[in-house]
Amino acid sequence: MANIISDETIEYVGILAKLELSGEEKEQAKKDMGSMLDYIDKLGELDTEGVEPMSHVFPVKNVFREDIVTNEDVRDEILKNAPGEKNGMFTVPRTFE
Amino acid sequence: MAKQYETVIGLEVHVELATKTKIFCGCSTAFGGEPNTHTCPVCTGMPGSLPVLNKQVLEYAVAVGLATNCTITQYCKFDRKNYFYPDNPQNYQISQLYLPICRNGKVEIETEKGKKYIGIHEIHMEEDAGKLIHDEWDDCSLVDFNRSGVPLIEIVSEPDMRSAEEVIAYLEKLRMTIQYLGASDCKLQEGSMRADVNLSIREVGAEEFGTRTEMKNLNSFKAIARAIEGERERQIDLLEAGEKVIQETRRWDDNKGESYAMRSKEDAQDYRYFPDPDLVPIVLDDAFLDQIRAKQPEFREEKMLRYKEEFDIPEYDIQIITGSKHMADIFEETVALGSQPKKVSNWLMVETLRLLKENNMDPEDIRFSPENLAKLISLTDAKAINSSVAKEVFEVMFDQNVDPEKYVEEKGLKTVNDEGALRKTVEEVIANNPQSVEDYRNGKEKAIGFLVGQTMKAMKGKADPGMINKLLKELL
Amino acid sequence: MSILDMTACQLAAAIKNKEVTVLEATKAVLAQIHEKEEKYHCYVTVDEEGALAQAQEVQKKIDAGVLTGALAGVPVAIKDNMCTQGLLTTCSSKILNNFVPTFSSEAVLNLQRAGAVILGKTNMDEFAMGSTTETSAYGETKNPWNTEHVPGGSSGGSAAAVAAKECFYALGSDTGGSIRQPASFCGVVGLKPTYGRVSRYGLIAYGSSLDQIGPLCKDVTDCAAIMEVISTHDKKDSTSVFREDTDFTSALVEDVKGMRIGIPRDYFGEGLDSQVRDAVLKAAEVLKEKGAVVEEFDLSLVEYAIPTYYTIAAAEASSNLERFDGIKYGYRAEGYEGLHDMYKKTRSQGFGAEVKRRIMLGSFVLSSGYYDAYYLKALRVKALIKKAFDEAFAKYDVIIGPVAPTTAPKLGESLSDPIKMYLGDIYTISVNLAGLPGLSMPCGIDSKGLPIGLQLIGDCFNEKKLIQTAYTYEKSRGVFGRKEDR
Prior knowledge:
The complex is a heterotrimer of chains A (about 100), B (about 475) and C (about 475). Chain A has about 100 residues and is an alpha+beta fold. Chain A has a domain at about 5-45: Histone, subunit A, CATH 1.10.20. Chain A is built from three helices and three strands; from the N terminus they run ααβαββ. Chain A has helices at about 5-15, 25-40, 75-80, and strands at about 65, 85, 90-95. A two-stranded antiparallel sheet of chain A has the order 2-3. The longest helix of chain A has 18 residues, at about 25-40. With about 475 residues, chain B is an alpha+beta fold. Chain B folds into three domains: about 5-290, no CATH class; about 300-405, no CATH class; about 420-475, Arc Repressor Mutant, subunit A (Orthogonal Bundle). Chain B is about 40% helix and about 20% strand. Chain B has helices at about 55-65, 165-180, 220-240, 285-295, 300-310, 315-320, 325-335, 340-360, 370-380, 385-400, 405-410, 420-430, 435-440, 445-460, 465-475, and strands at about 5-15, 55, 70, 75, 80, 90-95, 100-110, 115-125, 130-135, 140-145, 150-155, 195-205, 215, 250-255, 260, 275, 280-285. In chain B, strands 3-7-8-11-1-12-13-14-15 form a nine-stranded mixed β-sheet. A three-stranded antiparallel β-sheet of chain B has the order 6-5-16, with no helix packed on it. Chain C is of the alpha/beta class and about 475 residues long. Chain C has a domain at about 5-255 and about 430-485: Alpha-Beta Complex (Amidase signature (AS) enzymes). Chain C has an eleven-stranded mixed β-sheet with strand order 1-3-2-4-6-5-10-11-9-7-8, with helices on both faces. Chain C starts with 7 loop residues before the first helix and ends in a 9-residue tail after the last helix. Chains A and C meet through α1, α2 and β3 of A and α9, α10, α11 and α12 of C.
């Protein structure tokens, strides 16, 4: 395998992605990511000098809405799905020090 | 000799745009709703929801860019900035990194040291986050997404400022420009304008920049000035002690007058920006830019020059009046309705400013209409009401924008111009106040003031003081 | 003909002619679901009560002459990654185990406006990540042709439900082949429309620049009729495109004379099962006999499509799936210490292995220092792939090839080696990268008795050419179905 994924990298990506992998999962993830990156490295064979990165396949542009209030209050319905709710708000573990 | 240090400051200014709806959905941006009542699937990050750009946001951003001499990016895109935080419902913020809407601008500021240009690196459009409220009772935090998705522009300056004074001048300049455009009310206290200060120091004469810190949570010009001074001192102390400045984000506590680092090991500061696939590119042709350019208002500097030429009012008045677009509009519209500029200016400079101050309001909060101010001025011009009644009416008008003509009519405040009735009252006052009459006759000129007051009181204020004076002197 | 054997259009016609009521049809298909679900497990949620209520409502509207469309009264199954108001929507993930959307996706609303009766939500690979429907948190779906085999994926539940007559047609979504490949494995017709043709509003995103909703159905006529209903311009989806050429049923014409059909040699190389190859080439032969001009050509870049796709799709997915954090909806872990621990525990417990694998990869390729080398590089290769297709469509009206290298693999065979599993997407993935329409339809049965799929690829917004070609082929091929049904 050309791409060796370190413990630090898996740890770091876990922080970014908010995923906590068990020891076994970590080893598997290192292996999987390494082989995927080896595979992706195949793209390096292609000369893409001067090619514009294409994020949209079609030249769709300038899609706007007018500045008009269209939404009604759907708070109660939205809050029904919340794991934690209080006073019309979503509860989360405390964020202030 | 101690080393001399220079402060190098750049600002990131967030401005909430004055649109009716949020940047990517049709929810209202109005303040003061119950928590989460201005929300929908888009601004609460519901699975399956998709953003669509509010055109007004784009127009405001371009207008601000043109007013600050920026180059408008005619092919621009939105990017996602990925980070987890509960006030950010999608856990990514839609912003612009790679192709911001405006770049390479500059604005001119003036301080005691003279005029100077401050460069603008870029302006980009983005969405605001929701609000977190701490719940002491349950020891948790509560999330309200009413502000989530409110449109913002972030104006990033070049590190061109060297003092708190320049920073304030720059902020004032931005605020004035944006207010004149009607793109935002730019209130620091209410958070519709927020400034983060990037500050570093270097020895005078040095070419290289020092390591900078970013200071957040600055809610007033005073706090900004204090934070700049505090951070400058902190950095100098570090360097003098042989330590290094660490590049970090710090939070200013204005009550304590000090800052602390906002650090977390869970915060990797790696935002993994990439173009948002849910939004399509914005391609702006010259015609669109011309259209926005044509709508640009007369800005403050031009207005001041014109006032000087057109209206015979003091320079100081011009400064104050043009210091608020709203006040300048009221001034001009009232004058256009036929009122004498000097009188309009007086009402604004004296009574209006007094009431704003007493009520802790900004000129933007003025509610009375130019029509009503013009009516009030013509009532006084016609001597239909005297000046103290006029002030009384103005207070009500300031508060509720009442029609002064109707109000004066309804409350029966018109000056009594019937000399017979007035003469009768004056005679009664003379009869009832022999002591004052005697004092006056004994040469105490001041005593007549008391008698005028008593007459006015008896007339319930609806008399012309000049006429009372005349009658008193005649009858005494 | 029994109700269950009818196609969607046949059933709608029978309802219109008062030969069958909507309620009868709904009850018949619910009975089939009762009987077969234990065996196939096509659905995550069956909304029996709701379906019966809708059936009565729809019948009233048909009787009143309000609903007259070609699909009025026909019961449908919806892939469980499309929001349905008031009806559990899980994406086959534990992290959405209790999510009830407050709104319906635009495609579903379009069906309902056309008089569809929603039966329930079909099983899928978790968040549409997979090719077998085995990554579902709610158990695997089995292939109705042979229950030891997978139905394909990620829209495996939808494809199996159509094949098992547990619905008359279904909606699926296709990010890298997720409609076409299960359609192929289950012997039904599936179409991935041109990107932008069908609104994505309400589709829970996997790879936003690649995702597209489309039909899975019994024949090409149904496919055209469903496309007419779901292809609408939606102002809520910025990538939705306004088109006037949505009269897909007008392309149900048995004629391919002069149609230029290209067969990419690159699709017939190593790894392709010989029975699949033979069946596909035989189908090409049929079209040639019908007057099409068929020739081989070199498409190029085929082997680069998979790494390009997995870079882009994983990157977008890593961002799209950030919203599942235990705050606003869905699963929240118990026993956490503080905010970040809550995030980590919720997501680690809520997502399955394949989803985590792709989120990790996607987060990595976007992370500081790698963005240019991986993500931007992939977007550049995507441009090259699009260009290769543009060149091909300068010469051909339709490209035909296999859908997948093999017929449906056995359950449990695929997940162990991700790269091998990803290689199974080689013929479908570039269609998504280039935003093109692709149609999958049965063209044979292999020695194991499993259906073989034929893929027709068109230029952007050329669905009608695909439908015309597919319809012509279908007419010559004749009726296709499982032995037990024939």
